[in-house]
Amino acid sequence: MKDLTLRQQEILGFIQVYLKEQGYWPSIREIQDHFGFKSTNAVMGHLRALEKKGYISRIPGQARTFRITYQHEDDQKPEDAMDVVEFDMEVLGQIAAGYPDGVETTGEITRIQMDEATAKIHRSRRSFALKVRGDSMVDAGIYEGDIVIIEPRLPNNGDIVAALIDGETTLKRFIQEGGNSPYLKAENSRYPELHPVAELVIQGVANAVVRSL
């Protein structure tokens, strides 16, 4: 094995500790944030260096997919290591995080690079991303300009959802308690609860938020 630079040792150590504590790889974005890199390209550069020196290996036929191949005796066994997979996801338009409006997805407006751990999904063609417009979800940590990852599925009580309420779209928290009719709740005290007059259609559940710094 070739010697590692100090930074490479730090990154490998961070991955190994994270893997032990969480049971899965840190995302590329988490590595970037932890070390203060300006871009994910810097992370990938270090991962390629670790690969070249034999400390991690790429899964054949899968871009940006690695596993740890070098372990100390007291480290997690290689067969227990998790993979990190990055992929492109289309951003299909904007969604109101304020009062509902009639703006719906308009087809792909841009693409973002995600990994499965950050998106909190198993990669699926059904999942998509929407850009947030408005401030009704700020107390849930969702701000104007953020991108939310939406997975079409039935919601549980308390999930944040992309919804169509009486013909208009919005991003809100889904509330259904007991046998009561479901409604939508903002995460900003300036906005009222939204109770459907005619229909409430859940288009998907928000699994993750992506923010540009």
Keywords:
single chain; 213 residues; alpha+beta; Arc Repressor Mutant, subunit A; Umud Fragment, subunit A; 2 domains; 8-stranded mixed beta sheet; two-stranded antiparallel sheet; elongated
What does this entry look like structurally?
By secondary structure, this protein is an alpha+beta fold. The protein has two domains: 75 residues, Arc Repressor Mutant, subunit A, CATH 1.10.10.10; 125 residues, Umud Fragment, subunit A. Helices cover 20% and strands 29% of the residues. The strands form two sheets. It has an eight-stranded mixed sheet with strand order 4-3-5-6-10-7-8-9. Strands 1-2 form a two-stranded antiparallel sheet. Helix 1 packs across helix 3 and helix 2 crosses helix 3. It is elongated, with a radius of gyration of 20 Å. About 5% of the residues have low confidence.
How would you summarize the topology of this molecule?
Elements (H helix, E strand, L loop, with lengths): L5 H17 L5 H8 L4 H13 L3 E3 L7 E3 L17 E11 L13 E6 H4 L8 E6 L13 E5 L8 E6 L2 E8 L7 E3 L14 E11 L3
Parallel strand pairs: 3-5
Antiparallel strand pairs: 1-2, 3-4, 5-6, 6-10, 7-8, 7-10, 8-9
Helix pairs in contact: 1-3, 2-3
